[in-house]
């Protein structure tokens, strides 16, 4: 689906066409789940946050400003839903990535361990830092798109990403050093 079709779909939903919202869900379900998983660290919480994001978007669609892109609006809702899931939680259950059948058992175990270490380090970042890392490195958004999603200037995106990468590197190096 092309971005220029999104305003038409939003208008169709507002005019009472439920199938139009299904098309928006179809396009954004995987990236929304991905951002939710990377922020929450839990498959179950990510599924809940994804459902919450789409429910909130549907219920508040009349507040969508068509002068902005729909994806920025829905990603912001998803980020907020995901951060709400994390707030107040004492422990985060870590989900294991799906095994790659082309890898041997040792490679799969190492990949799971690395993924768990990165996810644990991500969850130690501040919400602002975690959000920009996830949007940039897991969803591949540009600095301008990140700025639009989190409502900050591109200059702030750059500085947050720099700080977040430095902190993430430090956390991973500390964790790696503790293991040896």
| Low-pLDDT stretches | 90-97
Using only CA atoms, what is the Rg? 18 Å
Structural class: mainly alpha
Distance between the termini: 48 Å
Task: Give the helix tally.
Answer: 8
Q: State the helicity in percent bands.
A: over 70%
Strand content: under 5%
Largest sheet: none
| Oligomer category | single chain
Order of helices and strands: HHHHHHHH
Q: What is the 3D form?
A: globular
Mean pLDDT: 82
Number of distinct beta strands? 0
Question: Could you explain how this protein is built, in words?
Answer:
It is a single chain. With 180 residues, the protein is mostly helical. It is 73% helix and 0% strand. It has helices at residues 6-14, 18-40, 43-59, 70-86, 105-124, 127-138, 143-150, 154-179. Helix 6 crosses helix 8. The chain is globular.
Secondary-structure map:
Blueprint: H1 6-14, H2 18-40, H3 43-59, H4 70-86, H5 105-124, H6 127-138, H7 143-150, H8 154-179
Helix pairs in contact: 1-2, 2-3, 2-4, 2-6, 3-4, 4-7, 5-8, 6-8, 7-8
In short:
The protein is built from 8 helices and no strands. It has helices at about 5-15, 20-40, 45-60, 70-85, 105-125, 125-140, 145-150, 155-180.
């Amino acid at each position: 689906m092309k971005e220029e079709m999104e305003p038409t779909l939003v208008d169709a939903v507002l005019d009472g066409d439920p199938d139009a919202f299904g098309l928006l869900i179809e396009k954004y379900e995987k990236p929304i789940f991905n951002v939710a998983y990377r922020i929450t660290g839990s498959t179950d919480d990510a599924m809940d946050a994804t459902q919450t994001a789409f429910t909130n978007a549907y219920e508040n669609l009349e507040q969508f400003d068509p002068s902005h892109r729909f994806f920025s609006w829905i990603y912001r809702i998803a980020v907020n839903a995901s951060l709400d899931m994390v707030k107040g939680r004492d422990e985060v259950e870590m989900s294991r990535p799906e095994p790659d059948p082309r890898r041997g058992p040792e490679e799969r175990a190492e990949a799971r361990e690395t993924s768990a270490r990165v996810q644990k380090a991500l969850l130690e970042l501040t919400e602002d830092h975690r959000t920009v890392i996830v949007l940039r490195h897991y969803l591949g958004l540009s600095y301008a798109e990140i700025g639009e999603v989190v409502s900050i200037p591109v200059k702030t995106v750059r500085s947050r990403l720099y700080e977040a990468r430095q902190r993430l590197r430090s956390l991973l190096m500390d964790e790696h050093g503790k293991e040896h």
